[in-house]
Specification:
This protein is α+β, with helices and mostly antiparallel strands. It has 13 helices and 14 strands.
């Protein structure tokens, strides 16, 4: 493949500035900060790549055919059901760009669609493309969502490329959403969902708010949207910070419009980085969000140079509580991409809860936890291996037994009515509801031993 040089920018400080450059060859990917960027006092590419520390040192990812995890998070993953990736590859074809390999497709997607997303890092093909994109801050009109997204979805392509207006009429049939689970970044009226969307806001607007619009694949996962809403309510009642959401409907399909939390009150993007990106930056054995163990997050919490999290006790308690509530609710999908730190070092903290859906309701996703913790299953132990794993996990986090007992007692109490919560999700088939209730009762009974 030909060497590629991409331009990395941010508007975390309010005004867009160049952060650095990403050079990619067939041997490695190399990111370097722009000479003046460390002087701005802004967040860097990653919490573990502070600009001051890497002012004169490139950050090298020496795995051929791969990118730094931080950049991979900006690309729709190569999944057969990924709506965004299919749409954006079609967008590239309309521009005459047809990558020869999956990795070249990743690079093309990063160059042409790696901006305006979650977090504060924007990637462009070059500096001129960045300047053109930032020069347009109009999010356009609010458009009703019909049975097909129609113009509003086509217009999203213009959000990614300021010069893409010419392709709006050449896309062919309007894409429908029937066979995919799109997660679309859109704006809705400030007072909530009313069936209209626009492009995401590029600056603060009093009349609109940014959301992630998640649409249910009802044939495969009936009841998923309502189940996620129930899980968000459960976490809120347990004391975790959760985003606002609105029940929605798109083309007859249930959906959730979930308020984004990666923007401040002035509309500036906030750093939001998954624990996968953070851990994979320094560990060659972590290549997927399910690699490693949750215990290793303790190292991130305890990191002193650079200091990422000042309130370490709160972070330890948060993580332990999240794992216990995932067990109690049947959320076996708590992997490293579903845990993130929000904000700049040293005041970064765990983000509000997202994607807490109890996926164990479906037999194909019946997994205790997507990432191991506490050495669960590694060797025979006396007593309940799950309880022993929870105690060992707490030890790795530096939590005392009284802390464990307090957190467990609180969450067991909050989850006591979980069977009623599940049964109230009537859009979830009865068999799935019964399955989830049985899983919860087993977990609730076993985790009593932590108190």
């Amino acid at each position: 493949m030909q060497d590629v040089l991409l331009s990395v920018w941010t508007r975390a400080g309010g005004e867009p500035v160049k952060m650095g450059g990403l050079f990619v060859s067939d041997r490695e990917a190399r990111f370097s900060y722009a000479p003046e960027y460390p002087d701005y006092g802004l967040s860097g590419l990653s919490l573990v790549y502070p600009p001051g520390l890497f002012r004169d040192s490139p950050i090298v990812h020496d795995r051929p055919g791969s990118l730094h995890p931080r950049f991979r998070s900006l690309i729709p993953p190569a999944d057969e059901h990924n709506f965004q990736r299919k749409l954006m590859l079609a967008f590239l074809r309309e521009k005459g760009i047809e990558p020869a390999t999956p990795f070249e497709a990743d690079l093309a997607l990063l160059a042409h669609t790696g901006h305006g997303g979650i977090g504060h890092v924007d990637v462009f093909a070059d500096d001129e493309a960045a300047r053109k994109w930032y020069a347009i801050d109009d999010s356009g009109p609010l458009v009703p969502v019909g049975e097909q997204f129609g113009f509003s979805l086509k217009d999203m392509i213009s959000w990614l490329d300021a010069d893409a207006r010419f392709i709006l009429e050449s896309l062919g049939p309007t894409p429908s959403v029937g066979g995919a689970i799109p997660k679309l970044l859109v704006a809705i009226p400030a007072d909530g969902w009313d069936g209209r969307i626009s492009l995401p806001n590029r600056s603060r607007r009093d009349d609109r708010l940014d959301v992630v619009l998640k649409i249910e694949r009802s044939q495969t996962y009936p009841g998923l949207a309502a189940l996620e809403a129930m899980a968000l309510d459960l976490h809120r009642d347990a004391g975790f910070e959760t985003p606002r959401y609105w029940h929605a409907e798109v083309g007859g399909l249930p959906a959730l419009a979930i308020e984004r939390f990666d923007r401040d009150g002035e509309g500036r993007p906030l750093p939001l980085e998954s624990l996968f990106s953070i851990l994979a930056a320094g560990a060659r054995d972590i290549e997927r969000p399910t690699d490693g163990s949750l215990d290793r997050i303790a190292r991130v919490i305890d990191l002193a140079d650079p200091l990422l999290i000042r309130d370490k006790k709160a972070a330890r308690s948060h993580l332990f509580g999240r794992v216990l509530l995932a067990l109690l609710s049947g959320n076996g999908d708590l992997h490293l991409e579903n845990l993130s730190l929000l904000g700049a070092a040293p005041e970064a903290a765990f983000s509000p809860v997202y994607d807490p859906t109890p996926m164990r309701a479906w037999r194909m996703h019946d997994l205790l936890c997507a990432v191991p913790f506490g050495g669960y299953g590694e060797e025979e132990v006396e007593g309940d291996p799950l309880v022993q794993a929870c105690f060992r996990f707490a030890d790795s986090l530096g939590l005392h037994r009284k802390d464990v007992a307090g957190i467990a007692a609180h969450l067991l109490g909050v989850a006591a009515d979980y069977p009623q919560r599940v049964r109230a999700v009537t859009s979830l088939p009865a068999d799935n509801r019964a399955r989830l209730v049985d899983i919860h009762r087993d977990m609730h009974r076993r985790l009593q031993a932590l108190v």
